[in-house]
Amino acid sequence: MRSKAAHVLLAHVLAFCLSATAAEAAAEKIEMQSNLWEEAKGEALIEEAAADTREITIRVENLVPDSVFTVWFVNERPVVDIMGVGEGANSFRTDSDGNGVFSATVSSGELEDWQKLEVAYHPEGDPRKLANLHIALIAELKEAP
């Protein structure tokens, strides 16, 4: 009987390990590079959500406190193109320490179409005003052709 119990336990341990490995494989963590301020940093976590969708979570630190930022998909080649990330508002506000979190769900196909993920600073505090925005953080999603 011990042998059967040991096999059952081993099967449960293997199943747990395989499911944990699959979950880790489905998540991708990308460090964001600062483009404006030396102390600024961020990371983008891209995880499987539901069938054919991905959850993008961006965590930022040491940006301008109590300020508005937007998140964009960007292509630079062969043609420059941008699109706000997610449906609805693609903006977030940092806290009094300059930290913030943005989260959105996108289709897997949509994610594969873009080369970069960028976080833009809006010094006027209005995410609709694009003329004076500044790119604060950049994450490479894939190489440009």
Secondary structure topology:
Blueprint lengths: L1 H25 L1 E7 L6 E8 L4 E9 L6 E8 L5 E4 L6 E3 L6 E8 H5 L3 E7 L11 E7 L5
Antiparallel strand pairs: 1-2, 1-9, 2-3, 3-7, 4-5, 4-6, 4-8, 8-9
What is the alpha-carbon Rg in Å? 19 Å
CATH architecture term = Sandwich
Task: Report the uncertain regions.
Answer: 6-14, 16-25
**CATH topology (fold) name:** Immunoglobulin-like
Judging from the principal axes of the Cα atoms, what is the shape? Answer: globular
Give the overall average pLDDT. 86
The residue fraction in helices comes out at 10-25%
Write up what this structure looks like.
The chain has 145 residues and is α+β, with helices and mostly antiparallel strands. It has a single domain (28-140), classed as Immunoglobulin-like, CATH 2.60.40. 21% of the residues lie in helices and 42% in strands. The protein contains two helices and nine strands, in the order αβββββββαββ. Strands 1, 2, 3, 4, 5, 6, 7, 8 and 9 form a nine-stranded antiparallel beta sheet that branches. The longest helix has 25 residues, at 2-26. The protein is globular and about 65 Å long. Mean pLDDT is 86; it is low at 6-14 and 16-25.
Features:
nine-stranded antiparallel beta sheet; 2 helices; single chain; 9 strands; Immunoglobulin-like; alpha+beta; 145 residues
